[in-house]
Structure formats: C-alpha cells, structure tokens
Design a protein that fits this description.
With 332 residues, this protein is α/β, with parallel strands linked by helices. It has eight helices and 14 strands. It has an eight-stranded mixed sheet with strand order 2-1-3-4-5-6-9-10. Strands 11-12-13-14 form a four-stranded parallel sheet, sandwiched between helices. A two-stranded antiparallel sheet has the order 7-8. GO terms for molecular function: asparaginase activity.
Length: 332
C-alpha cells in the first residue's frame, strides 16, 4: 500500500458547503450548511491522493466573515503546520471574501507547509457543482512538493494563484478568480500539478495576528463626493482609511481636503485604485495633494485594508510615519 501524504482540511463554510432544494439552481441556495465530512465523502478520489484529516473551524457565509474567525483560522493553521507529519493544509472558504482571508493568511503565516485555499461558485447540490473538483485539486496541490515555499496559495478552476494577487472578478462564473497583475502561478490537470512561477516577497517575516483590531475602513472617490463619510469615521475613532480611488490613485479634491484633515489627526490614509488592476504610483514628495498619502502599490482596496489593519495593530504609530508605512506596502 502506498503511503499517502497527510493533508489537513480546515472548513469555514461558504458556497462550497452550500445547499439548495433545487439542484437545477446555482444561484438560489443557502451557504454554509453542509459539514466538512459530507464534502469529503462526496469526493472519493481524495482517498487516492492523501490521508485526510478534517476540522470544522467555522460554518459561515463568507460575506459575514469577521476577525474572530480569521484569528481562529490562523491559530489552527499554525497548529497543524507545526505537526511533523502534516504535508499540507487546505482551507475551504466562501468566495465573497476569500481574497481577504487569503491576504490575511499570506501576511501572518510563515507557511512551513503548503497552505491552499479553495472554494466554489456553485453549491454542493448543484447539477454542475464545481466544489468537488476544486477540493480535489486543492488537496493535490497541498500534497505536491512543488507547492512548498510558494506561500499561501488559492486553487480554483484548475488554476493555482498566489494569495497576494488573486481577486474575485465575476459574480457567478466558475472562472471568477483571476490574478490581474501577473496571472496565475500554475495549473492543475488531473494528477499533473505545475507551478512554474515563484511569488517573491521582500519582507519574509510574518506579521502577528492582532489581539486587538484597529478600526480601518474603505471609502471611494467618484464624481462630486461629499466629505461627510470621512468626517464621521474620523469622529468615530477610525485609525486608517483606504481610498478606492479613480484611475492611478486619483482622489477628488473634496475628499483630498477631508483626508488631509484626517491625516493631520493621526489617521493613516492609503490610496488604492477602484479599476481592478494596475499599480498606484508613488507621487513626488513635493506633491501638495497626494504626497501625504501612502500608495497601496498594486493591492486592491480590500487587500490594502488587510495590510493596514495588521500594520496598525502591530504599531499604531505608523499612521504618523507615512514613509515607513509606504516602505511596508512596497515590501509585501
């Protein structure tokens, strides 16, 4: 008998664990109703890939993800990755906030073994459910030696993505996940796993998962915005603001005035782009408008928020040191 690698599956709910009374419907269903044991039993091919051990960490529709679940998930990843005979970890998740959880794990886990997130765009009861193959492929990747040293990965629709890069770009298609800046790292096709590209992070030290989470919110720049939201958030004690700006980080002059006032009170301000792809340029220091705000580089607003959350939780004073905060965003 072959000795298959030991893979731990940590389940958190989502559409992959969703169910519907109508198998012909892929849009009307309730997420996070099917336990992980049932998901695994529906994929008998897993038995020819790995020895599976499963744990139900949460059972939630990922639109309702909260920091407490992130902390619990990080703790279980650390626990299982420290077990000497565990070859890899798979996390099942909902698609709505998968990219945020992936970014959180990317920033907080040293990843001595492969950590692979997977999900589904269609519920488990659908006639064309994509969850079983995604789960099988995720286990194949987690068990594969080429997945080591690649950081946190995301596997859907036979593609392997870096957690830092991947984003959901379609409301319902099975190929909803893309990595806009640089494409996927590799692919899975049956037993063949190929990961020819290696993601590189300048700062390899994992940030600690917070005990206390600062208030960090996202606002958008668009035609004729008011400053009411910014002023209200500052009054409520927000510690950081990420701007989903237009184009190359362009912020409406009304919001610039509000955000400069916010920064003067010690609120960290980060410019991202609402376009979905591309790098937000770092302006010259002399720029009187955007020079006081940090660039999110090519991180979308949601990933930028995760990084800002962790950075301010670790060192609240970073809000008053935009140069150091900018260096952190450039290093991730």
């Amino acid at each position: 008998m072959p000795q298959f690698p030991r893979i731990v599956v940590l389940a958190t709910g989502g559409t992959i664990a969703g169910g519907s009374a109508n198998p012909a419907s892929s849009a009307r269903y309730q997420a996070a109703t099917v336990p992980v044991a049932t998901l695994l039993a529906a994929v008998p091919a897993l038995q020819s890939v790995a020895r599976i051990e499963a744990e139900q960490v949460a059972q939630v529709d990922s639109k309702d993800m909260v920091f407490a679940f992130w902390s619990a998930l990080a703790a279980r990843v650390r626990h299982w990755s420290g077990e000497p005979d565990v070859a890899g970890i798979v996390v099942t998740h909902g698609t709505d906030t998968l990219e945020e959880t992936a970014m959180f794990l990317h920033l907080t886990q040293a990843c001595p073994v492969p950590v692979v997130l997977t999900a589904a765009m269609r519920p488990s009861t659908s006639l064309s459910a994509d969850g079983p193959l995604n789960l099988l492929d995720a286990v194949r990747v987690a068990a594969h030696p080429d997945a080591r040293g690649k950081g946190v990965l995301v596997v859907l629709n036979q593609q392997v993505h870096a957690a830092r890069d991947v984003t959901k770009a379609h409301t319902s298609a099975v190929d909803a996940f893309v990595s806009p800046s640089c494409g996927p790292l590799g692919f899975v096709q049956d037993d063949l796993v190929r990961i020819p590209r290696v993601p590189v992070r300048a700062d390899n030290a994992a940030l600690p998962a917070p005990q206390q989470w600062p208030e960090v919110e996202i606002i958008a720049s668009y035609a004729q915005p008011g400053r009411v939201a910014v002023d209200a958030m500052v009054a409520a004690g927000v510690r950081g603001l990420v701007v989903a700006a237009a184009g190359n980080g362009s912020v409406h002059e009304t919001l610039v005035a509000a955000l400069k006032d916010a920064a003067a009170t010690g609120v960290a301000v980060v410019r991202s782009s609402r376009t979905g792809a591309g790098h937000v340029a770092i302006p010259p220091v002399a720029d009187p408008v955007a020079g006081v705000f940090v660039s999110a580089a090519d991180l979308n607003p949601y990933k930028a928020r995760v990084l800002l959350l962790l950075a301010l939780a670790q060192e609240p004073g970073l809000a008053a040191e935009p140069d150091r905060l900018q260096a952190l965003f450039a290093s991730v």
